[in-house]
Amino acid sequence: MSHQRIRTELKTWLEQYQQYQPNDFEMVYDHWVQQSLANVDPQVKKAFFSKLDAWFFHTHAFLQGTSYQYEARERILTVGRIFSNQIEKIEDMEKELTVEQLTYIAEQQMARGRLYSFAQGGLTGAGGWLFLGMDYPLMMLMNIRAIQLIGLTFGHEMNHPYEMMISLKVFHAATLPKRLKASAWNELIEEVKKKEHPFIFAGEDQLTDEGWMEQPMKQCFKSLFILMFRKKLVQGLPFISIAIGAYSNYHLTKQVTEFAMKFYQYRHLMNQEGAS
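Structure for ABC transporter substrate-binding protein, as requested:
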């Protein structure tokens, strides 16, 4: 019964993207981006996206090596053992727990991630140029980490090359504009359905592209608004800038973690059906 409820929620959630129609502004923006990038040398464009992808790969690897990640991993296992004493390693989470139990544990990770993003955004709004300059890399790092923790919760070991690539693909899809999410979702589902090797990712390994560039553009606008309102002080603090930074970062992490949760829920149900 719990499977059916979550399946219904997944269907409703996915329909909002499948039925989404871009407005005039989005269509004009799309055309403008395409025209702008069409004038860029193809080799320069390829090198730029290649370096951006490399940064995401290195960020993922860096996170896997931190003691903070190890502690989070152990915390997930500890909570999992409350529901089942058969859990010894991460892979046992998927085998031993129901989708509702996994969702409950993952929601704890999501709430913690959103809180961190809210606080970090507030500091960006209140701080100086250093905080503003570090905001975007930190946000990407925190969101990649949030996806890793959700993936771990659902029993997928993130230090395997295949799972690393899938989690980064989830990050990419989650940060795309709403009008592009449905096709990115379909590609992800097709990828896990045709999984050819348990550890090696055999699909397209490119992450960022022209469609993804809307996210950095939004970051530029956010930084501009923070700078515009930084001198509007209330009792010595730039409350408007703090609110812009906190809300913007919270909203992005909410969007990313929700997408990741739905993906890993769907994958879990799909795997359970295959096993049965």
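The longest helix spans residues 239-275.
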